[in-house]
Design brief:
This protein is of the alpha/beta class. It contains 14 helices and 15 strands. It folds into 2 domains: about 210 residues, 3-Layer(aba) Sandwich (Rossmann fold), CATH 3.40.50; about 230 residues, Rossmann fold (3-Layer(aba) Sandwich), CATH 3.40.50. Strand 9, helix 12 and strand 10 form a beta-alpha-beta unit. Bound molecules: nicotinamide-adenine-dinucleotide (NAD).
Length: about 450
């Protein structure tokens, strides 16, 4: 172990990152920036080709950093998994989606572990970063790796260390966000902590992989439950005519014991929507129903339906039939200022409007050029001008991108549904119906 530790301290290691997506690429880049040779292992040859040409495909990363790190050969990518044996450390950053029945799908982790097992060598440190249910590292990854004949914790080292990246966040990034690490034994934790310290400013060791796996789920369930709470209160506020946004703002002035969460058209992305289901699935094995998780999911996943009702109600006030109403959705990404469409509630709103029989539904999102809804392709309408806005019976802000000119939109739209309080600072907004405002 001391030999491996010394290599880490001298940064005389090669880091491998399996899965070069939203999580893997920034992590790999951070090691390259610190002067460590880093290889990205990817199934998607398109991503590999782009990276090896020095071309960035992640909106949050400065193109110049990718250009520089690939030019000086500290960062490269490959589809050749036999090169896993070149690495001293391997991070697993593959997707953990759910199935159509919302059961965990850890098949990507299994495949990555099997690939690593094929080339596993003595002294390697394996760190799983994909979000998953407690026990995955020890009950699934460990036995696969030990098929190599090497013993975990002695011949090779194994840890779980959850990712906390927040795409679009301008302050908290890969380097300055504290990271938790839990190894399968003391040696594994120590080595994984030392390796992580090269790229991350603050590393927090915990006593086991299961603690690290579970704390990540707690982080995301905490968000899901609190968002559900304000979403429920937003619906109540609509009935009683109180503005939920002002209520949350007022409550936020309490300097302790309160943290603001905001309502919206639902939750999306790869984490908050999916991860809670990992735990509720696992809990059932232990005859345990996670009631908070289920209730939060129910409320959050009902929000696109609630927004559909708001839209239909607004259309009914206009001299146009539902069928012929022209609806423009602004923002398709699952959150503001990012290009990530995964499980976006805006997609669900669009799907519901089409199912409602509204024929003219369009969208505009500067970050998402094309989407597919109900098997049908839609292109983002170009140039968000006053002329374009005037053309629609109703404009719905589903994602509040900063680039939108809300003054111009309010001035020219016949009617607006605002699901994000995007028009907060616009003075003249008589035509705006705000979710959770009751007006
Ligand atoms: N995106 C986030 O904001 C975020 C934040 C925290 C945690 N996470 C978690 O991190 C994990 C990765 O998420 P992501 O957003 O980076 O996913 P992603 O889809 O952006 O990237 C995953 C990449 O892995 C590749 N891949 C799949 N199987 C592979 C294999 N066997 N070998 C090599 N490459 C493989 C895919 O082609 C893809 O490029 C998930 O568990 C997710 O829940 C994501």
């Amino acid at each position: 172990m001391n030999k491996v530790l010394n290599k880490i301290k001298e940064k005389n290691i090669i880091v491998g990152v399996v899965g070069m997506g939203y999580v893997g690429l920034p992590l790999a880049l951070e090691y390259a920036i610190q002067g460590v040779k880093t290889i990205g292992f990817e199934l998607d040859s398109n991503k590999v080709d782009l990276l090896n040409k020095g071309i960035n495909y992640n909106q949050d990363i400065d193109n110049k950093l990718i250009e520089k790190s690939t030019k000086n050969k500290l960062l490269s990518a490959t589809t050749d998994f036999s090169r896993l044996q070149e690495c001293d450390v391997l991070f697993i950053c593959v997707p953990t989606p759910f199935t159509v029945n919302k059961d965990p799908d850890i098949s990507y982790i299994i495949k990555a572990a099997e690939d690593i097992q094929t080339y596993l060598k003595k002294g390697q440190i394996i760190i799983l970063k994909s979000t998953t249910f407690p026990g995955t590292t020890q009950k699934y990854v460990l036995p696969i790796l030990e098929k190599s004949g090497l013993q975990a914790g002695k011949d090779f080292y194994l840890a779980f260390s959850p990712e906390r990246i927040d795409p679009g966040n301008k302050f908290w990034n890969t380097r300055n966000t504290p990271i938790v690490v839990g190894g399968i034994n003391e040696e594994s934790t120590k080595l994984a902590v030392e390796v992580t310290k090269i790229a991350i400013e603050k590393v927090v060791p915990v006593s086991s992989p299961s603690i690290a796996e579970m704390e990540k789920l707690l982080e995301n369930i905490f968000r899901s439950v609190n968002i559900a709470l304000v979403n429920e209160l937003a619906q109540l506020c609509d009935r009683i005519g109180v503005n939920i946004w002002e209520v949350v703002e007022a409550a936020s002035t309490k300097p302790f014991g309160f943290m603001p969460f905001w309502p919206g058209p639902g939750i999306g992305g790869h984490c908050i929507l999916i991860d809670p289901y990992y735990l509720s699935w696992m809990a059932r094995e232990y005859d345990f129903e996670t009631k908070f998780i289920t209730l939060a999911a129910e409320i959050n996943e009902d929000m696109p339906f609630y927004v559909r009702s708001m839209i239909v109600k607004e259309i009914a006030k206009q001299p146009v039939t539902l069928e012929n109403a022209r609806v423009l959705l602004l923002g398709m990404a699952f959150k503001k200022d990012v290009d990530d469409l995964r499980h976006s509630p805006a997609l669900k709103v669009m799907e519901l409007l089409l199912l409602e029989g509204i024929k003219n539904v369009s969208y505009h999102d500067p970050y998402i050029p094309q989407i597919k809804v109900n098997g049908q392709k839609f292109d983002s309408v170009k140039n968000l001008t006053s002329k374009l806005i005037k053309n629609y019976d109703i404009v719905v802000v589903t994602t509040d991108h900063s680039v939108f000119d809300y003054e111009m939109i309010a001035k020219n739209a016949k009617s607006i549904i605002d699901t994000r309080n995007a028009f907060k600072n616009v003075k003249n907004k008589k035509n705006v119906v705000l979710l959770g405002d009751g007006k």
